[in-house]
Amino acid sequence: MRERPARTGAYWNDQATVATFTALAPPAYLTELLASPAPDGAMALDAGCGAGRNLPALLAAGYRVLAVDLHPGMLEQARKQHAGPRTAFAEANVTSLPLADRQAHLVVCHGVLHNLHHRQDLADALRELHRVLASGGTLSLNTFTAAHLDPCLEALADDVYALPNGQHMTLLDPADLLALIRAAGLSPRGPAVQYLSPGDPGQRSVWRATLTRP
Hints:
By secondary structure, the protein is an alpha/beta fold. The protein contains seven helices and eleven strands. The strands form two sheets. Strands 1, 2, 3, 4, 5, 9, 10 and 11 form an eight-stranded mixed β-sheet that branches. A three-stranded antiparallel β-sheet has the order 6-7-8, with no helix packed on it.
């Protein structure tokens, strides 16, 4: 087993990667979730905002938005494209969010958790998302899981896999992921959606659900 995961910053801060993510539109399932306008003064947290693909939809729905990302290349692009009186930006890890308890009426965390390097990191991140989510608030979550493991992935240890470029991902069985979600104090609203999505390289198994803090 390799002693350390490869640094993710080289990929996520690469100009070509940033440009690719800048061109992406908000996913349809988020747009559907935002069909009802935000309550007056409500805050949305985009935890792992990337280049800001979700920010126009969140702002159009009436939210104040805190956009957080670990990678300065992505965050700077999001700030350049979407800075305004109702947006704030912060460089931070999803395991330690710069937000007080129960402040976010809506939290978006798409394509983030599988990039953490250990199962415990996922558990910590889910507890942190629970901490900042208001009672009765909504968490839109998606992450890759071990429901399908592409042949390009190299198994390193329990739940830990390496991509050909050396980056590590933590991929849990969906049942294990759901157990961590419940242990963090979050509850699903309806069934999860699971499907295969093309990756670069290979395919990824996506697990997506809307969660709440009771």
